[in-house]
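Title: Prediction job returns without error message
Component: structure pipeline
Severity: low
Priority: P3
Assignee: unassigned

Description:
Job completed but the reporter wants confirmation the result is attached to the right record. Sequence as submitted:
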Amino acid sequence: MFFHVSRTMSFQPRTLAAGALLAFALCAASAPVLAHSDDSGGPGDRVCTLLGMLGPTPPQCQDQSDGISPEVHAKLHDLFLSVLPFFNFDVAVAAGWDTIPGGQCIESPMGGMGYHLQNLDQLANGHLNLLRPEALLYAPIEDGSLKFVGVEYIIPGDLWDDPEPPVFLEQPLHFNPNVGPAGIWALHVWVVEENPNGIFADWNPDVSCEFAAGA
């Protein structure tokens, strides 16, 4: 069952002030500032400081001694910039990410994932696009709003017939037989909310559904 999201729902976007600062950060992180960044092509210290004040910390601002290749770090940086508008939930819905499977917030004893806001057109094509993930992840917080925390790349099981798992961002996708009629191949990327278990881990112990509607 799918739960279609209306922009008139009670999920509130982050404050207008934060949105304005994020828009400024998006402009600041573009090409002119990259001239002042480090050799990896990541954002400069001023941009990292600004984003740290708002909460999100792009992968290129984090410790690089994590076993992730420079090429993947560069792609994660591009991903972070592309999803900055989706800190505003209404913008994500208007852009086509408007369906929450079952209307459920997902968590387990290992941590949470939050709400999966899916783009059904992207999900149906069976192709992974770095800048158009199949799902955006939102965690409910105490004030009743939803905090953007990451993304998920998904290939429905019936659209993948290779005996080997698909690989994306140098990571093998994980198969979940319990989702959809034929299961799914999935890769979570905690490109916003830092995950102590790793940026590609399925569950984030710092994300929960404690404040989900009806919890």
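Comment from assignee: result matches the submitted record. Residues 16-85 form one domain.
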